[in-house]
Amino acid sequence: MALRVQNNISSLNTHKNLVKADRGLATSLERLSSGFRINRASDDAAGLAVSMKFRAQVRSLQQASRNTSEANSLLQVAEGAADQITNILSRMKELATQAASSNTSSSDRTNIDTEITSLEDEITRIANSTKYSGQSLINGSFGAVGVSDYGNAATSIGITGLDMTGARIGAEYGVSISSGGNGSISISDGTTTQALTASSLSGLNTETLNFSAFGIKITVNSAFNSASPGTTLDTIETSASASSSFQVGYEDNAQSKISFSLADMTRDGLTAGVTVTTLSGAQSALTTIDTAISTLADARATIGRNQNRLGFANANLSSVIENLSAAESVIRDTDMALETVNLTKNQILTQAGTAMLAQANLSPQSVLSLLG
Questions:
Q1: Residue 364: how many CB atoms within 10 A of its CB?
Q2: What is the pTM of this model?
Q3: CA atoms of 252 and 265, how far apart (whole Å)
Q4: φ and ψ at 143, to 5 degrees?
Q5: Deepest of 87, 89, 277, 349, by most Cβ within 10 A of its Cβ?
Q6: Rounded to whole angstroms, how far apart are CA atoms 296 and 304?
Q7: Do residues 38 and 48 touch, judged by C-beta distance below 8 A?
Q8: Is-contact 202 226, C-beta < 8 A?
Q9: What is the three-class DSSP state of 27?
Q10: How far is CA 58 from CA 40, 61, 319, 326, 350, in A?
Q11: Phi/psi at 119 (nearest 5 deg)?
Q12: Could you give the 3-state DSSP secondary structure of residue 188?
């Protein structure tokens, strides 16, 4: 056996193993105390990069989930107001029915008309005061559907108004005058076509045609009677304003957004002002109020289907958040059971290494017996 004092190989080797065990012990303590397997890029560079992306996506989706909840709350506010307006229209229908009967006197019709006017004012007040975070919801300004230019021909053929409140967002519609010369106008989205005929247009009178298949209303005046058959307007394209877009994903694309608009539930958007001071006026009011009730029913249906859509979107977000969090956890989080095993092992190795280093440091002292 060679005895050397300049280089204690056993001591150096033991020290190396002790440093390794001590480093492992420090790593185990860090992972157990932080709960993370990756505490710095050097622990797992690729794993850190992937887990950071997952974590950012999860936080973004958590905010998206809050967005859907707030959008649903917004719709609940609008639904509550729409319910009250429905009750008012029902009362107006009742009053108009009373006024449309010949046994109602002129003075009674005047009183009824006064109440109907007050009810219409209340409809507008409710519509204008229904807000969410300061933003009006049902006065026609929320998520209003943007419309492209529909051509100079529109004014020349008597079209004075275009209400696209109920139209699908991102759709294209073709509008044309019937080639048969029967005073009808048609709208087509490429799949469905609906034609309506204007009647009783003379002088300054106007008529609103309700294309219920598309949620579009077109107002025409007497110039429409002289429109050339077969006249075609430019294609109408719809788009949503930014106020109606809700971010429900972590990317900037159509799949990460839900957009919708809310109908104009003011008097102008529903009844446009009715009068029942005469028998004929009361009878006409019945039709107008029926149309308003139908319009409001469609608007409430729109609110309901968007609430359902947001509910499913939120449920899907919860599922995606759970799965991404689990994937991120597998990559970055500490396996506490496994790391406890490593901690115990490194504690034993550290204690054993310390004891053996002491023994190795005593080995060169045996040389003194040779010198004695």
A1: 16
A2: 0.64
A3: 32
A4: 60, 35
A5: 89
A6: 12
A7: yes
A8: no
A9: helix
A10: 20, 5, 11, 10, 40
A11: -65, -40
A12: strand
- Residues facing 139 on adjacent strands: 264
Angle at the Cα of 251 from the Cα atoms of 253 and 36, rounded to 5 degrees? 170
- Among the listed residues 266, 277, 297, the one whose alpha carbon sits nearest the alpha carbon of residue 90: 297
pLDDT tens profile 179-230: 544 567 888 888 888 888 877 666 666 778 888 888 788 887 777 766 666 6
One-letter amino acid of 223: A
- With a cut of 50, list the residues of the chain below it in pLDDT: 153, 180-181, 242-243
Domains in the chain, start-ordered, CATH in brackets? 104-302 (1.20.1330)
Let me know: does 145 contact 239? Beta carbons within 8 Å: yes
| Beta strand spans in the chain (E) | 131-132, 135-136, 145-147, 159-163, 172-177, 184-188, 193-197, 206-211, 216-221, 236-240, 245-247, 257-259
Q: What is the DSSP string of 230-242?
A: T-BPPPEEEEE-G
* Most distant CA pair in the chain, distance: 142
Strand 184-188, strand 245-247: pairing = unpaired
* Residue 319 CA: distances (Å) to CA of 247, 250, 255, 257, 281: 17, 15, 17, 18, 57
User: Contact 276/239 with Cβ under 8 angstroms?
Assistant: no
Give burial (CB, 10 Å; 0-12/13-18/19+) of 1. Answer: exposed
102-105-111-117 Cα dihedral, nearest 10 degrees: 30
